[in-house]
Amino acid sequence: MSTAAAEWELWSTRARLVVTNPSMLTTARELVDSYLAKVDDAANRFRADSEISRLTERSGWVTLSPTLTHLLEEALAVARMTDGDVDPTVGGAVRRLGYDRDLRLVTEDGGPVRAVISPVPGYRSLRLDGSRLHKVAGVELDLGATAKAAAADGAAALVHGALGTGVLVSLGGDIATAGAAPGSGWQVHVQDRDQDPWTQVELPAGSAIATSSTVSRQWRRGGRTLHHVVDPRTGQPARPVWRSVTVAADTCLRANAVTTAALVRGEPAVDWVRGLGLPARFLRADGVLVHTDGWPTGEAA
Amino acid sequence: MDEQREQISDRDRALRRAGALRRTLVGSAAAGSLGIAAVLGLGTLGGSSTTAQSSTGTTSGSSSSTSSSTGSSSTHSSDDGSSAGSFSEDDGTSDDDGGSSSSGSNSTSNTGTAPSLSNGSGSSHATTSGS
Predict the structure, then answer these.
(1) Are A263 and A239 in contact (CB under 8 A)?
(2) Domain A1-301, CATH 3.10.520.10 — does that match?
(3) Given CB atoms, is B30 within the 8 Å cutoff of chain A?
(4) Cα A49 to Cα A279: distance, rounded to the nearest angstrom
(5) How many Å lie between the alpha carbon of B47 and the closest alpha carbon of chain A?
(6) Do A279 and B115 touch (CB under 8 A)?
(7) Does B119 touch chain A (CB under 8 A)?
(8) Residues B25-68: pLDDT tens digits?
(9) Alpha-carbon distance values, A154 to A230, A280, B82 (Å)
(10) What angle do CA B72, A174, A39 make, to 5 degrees?
(11) Do B119 and A200 touch (CB under 8 A)?
C-alpha cells in the first residue's frame, strides 16, 4: 500500500499528514487545516483574540465554544488522570517564566525572571458544567500540554471518518493514527534531539505515540535555561531528570498525558508507567535509556 | 470494470462528504455552533476513543478494504467511512448539531489498551520528538 504525505510549519513545530490513499491527500490536508484553525481560534494563548486569551480576565460563569469546551474537558480529564501533574491552570506560571509568545519570538536571553516557587491555581479551581466554565479572574489557562495531542487524535479521526483512508497525523511529534496502516505498518522514528540515541518502532493501526522533552522548547532568562514543562506544584520548570520520555497508547492524548506527567514526576515515573502497562522509553539526563515492558528492544546506538 | 466503477464511485462519495464537512467546519453560519467533538463524535479520555474505534473498525458497506500491519486485520468501510463519527451522507453535518461537545469529562485512571509495538524497519512515516 503506497502512502502520500504533506508537511508544513505549525505552532513553532512541524505538522505531518500521511494517508494510505494518495488520491485523498489534498482533501485530507484541507480537512486538517480547517480543523486545526478551529483549535487555534479556541486555544492559542499567544493570540490576543483567541477565546482562551479573552477568558483570562473573566470571572464567574462563562459560556465556552464547543471547541474550547471539548479541549478543556480533555485537559481536566488529563489533570485527574495524572493527579494534577498536568494542569491546565499553568498559564500564568509559564508566562512569568518568559514563555509568553510563540517560541520563535522568545528571545535568546530576555533578562532574569523571578524564581517564585508557588503552586499554580490548580484544576480543581475550575468548574466545567457542560459548556459553562466557572473561573476566577486572573487564572490563566494553558492547554499546551494537551491540546496538540487532542488535535492530532481529532484530525486523524476526522480524515478517516470523512475519507475512509488510513491516516497518520503528527503535530510536533504527537502522533495519532486512524484506519488501516500501510502494509509495513506505521513506521515511527523515535528521537528527540539530533545527538540523542534513536530507534524505530512499528506502530499498530489506530494507536498513537508521543514524546515529551525537557530539552526541546527551551529558552534563557538571566543566564538560566528554562523549558516549557512546568511542575504545577512549584510553578517552575520540572527538574530535568529525563531528557525525554516516549509513550505509546491507544490515543495521542493519553500518550502525551503520560509523557508530560512523567517529566514532572521524575524518577518515580518509571514505576508509575509500568503500572499503567504502557510501552515507554525514558532517556535520562545522563544518557541512560530505561524501557518498560512492551517497548521493543534493539535500540540503535 | 464494475470494480473500477465502484472504486470511482466510492471516491466521489468520500470527496463529496469531505467537501460538505469542510464547509461545515469553516464556512457555514452553523460552524460556530458545531463543536469539534460533536462533529467528530469524539469520546473523552476515560470514554470510548474514536481512534481506538477506528483501529478495530466497523464494516457497514459492501465495499471495504482490509490491510494488516501487525498480523491483525483492520477493516474500514470505504463507502460510508462512518466508524469515527456521526456524519450524514446527505449534508456532511453531524447528527449532534451542537450543545455540549462530548459526553463530559471523566474521573479516570483508565489508560486504555496498550498497543503492541515492534521493532521498525524501512523508511519512517513520521518522527516523534519532544515538543
Answers:
(1) no
(2) yes
(3) no
(4) 39
(5) 10
(6) yes
(7) yes
(8) 654 333 333 344 444 444 444 433 333 233 333 323 333 333 33
(9) 25, 23, 14
(10) 115
(11) yes
Nearest to A162 among B37, B87, B101 (CB): B87
Q: How many CB pairs under 8 A join A and B?
A: 346
CA-nearest of A78, A85, A84, A3 to A249 is: A78
Residues listed for chain B: 131
Give me the residues of chain A with pLDDT under 50, please: 301
Indicate yes or no: CB of A164 within 8 angstroms of CB of B76.
Answer: yes
Element (DSSP H or E) covering residue A175: strand A174-178
* DSSP secondary structure letters along A34-92: HHHHHHHHHH-TT-TTSHHHHHTT--EEEEPPHHHHHHHHHHHHHHHHTTTSS-TT-HH
B125/A3 CB distance under 8 A: yes
Q: What is the DSSP string of A198-267?
A: -EEEEEPTT-EEEEEESSSSEEEETTEEEES-EETTTTEEPP-SEEEEEEEESSHHHHHHHHHHHHHH-T
**Which residues fall within 8 angstroms of residue B73, CB to CB, at 6 or more apart?**
B66, B67
Q: Which residue of A has its CA nearest to B69?
A: A185
Mean pLDDT estimate for chain B: 49
What are the sequence ranges of the domains in chain A? 1-301
Residue A246 in grid coordinates: 516516549
Instruction: Quote the pLDDT of residue A59.
Output: 93
